[in-house]
Write a structure and sequence with these properties.
Structural class: mainly alpha
Helix content: over 70%
Order of helices and strands: HHHHHHH
Number of strands: 0
Largest sheet: none
Radius of gyration: 17 Å
């Protein structure tokens, strides 16, 4: 019997699972950017995370790559209880991953469209900060001035967009190198 008939649309090969694990580790390591402080973190974090997510989508090249990473990351972040405010903020990862996944699925070639990647990472940045800040303020009582709230939404949106731009060209190069070996 043909093994391809038994596979469903969520199936990842061993090589793809290994790649997903590597990207997952990079996403967790991305959290160390926050040790540089909240101002630097808000600027750099989005670029790095945007690059990682788009490169993962391009290199793995299968639908549901981003949502799989988001699900696993949410579980991990929930277990380690978030660096700043608590474990409920971990849900921002899966919410954003679902949104980015839906946007990437609108493109004919998953993760390959520059326009889709830029729009997707920009929306990911907006939603990620709004959900994170909303949970932080509602459930954990975090109080911030309006100017800082604006900074914490606008700057990451721009940095995630830059990450999507860089990630698209970098991801295509990485994919070419990985699959030419």
């Amino acid at each position: 019997m043909n093994n391809d008939l038994n596979r469903n649309k969520f199936y990842f090969s061993n090589k793809e699972i290994t790649l997903l694990a590597a990207f997952f580790v990079l996403l967790l390591a991305d959290n160390f950017i926050w040790t540089l402080g909240p101002m630097v973190g808000n600027v750099i974090y989005g670029v790095v995370e945007g690059v990682i997510l788009i490169v993962a989508a391009i290199v793995v090249g299968k639908k549901y790559t981003v949502v799989t990473l988001g699900f696993v990351r949410t579980l991990a972040e929930f277990i380690i209880a978030g660096a700043f405010v608590g474990s409920l903020t971990a849900f921002s990862y899966i919410i954003c991953a679902i949104i980015l996944e839906v946007i990437l699925l609108t493109s004919d070639s998953y993760g390959e469209s520059l326009k889709t990647n830029i729009i997707g990472t920009a929306i990911y940045g907006i939603v990620s900060r709004i959900v994170f800040l909303g949970i932080s303020m509602i459930f954990y009582g975090m109080v911030l001035p309006n100017s800082l709230l604006a900074f914490m939404v606008i700057v990451p949106t721009i940095s995630f967009t830059i990450g999507g731009l860089i990630g698209t060209s970098f991801g295509k190069r990485v994919k070419t190198i990985l699959f030419s070996i």
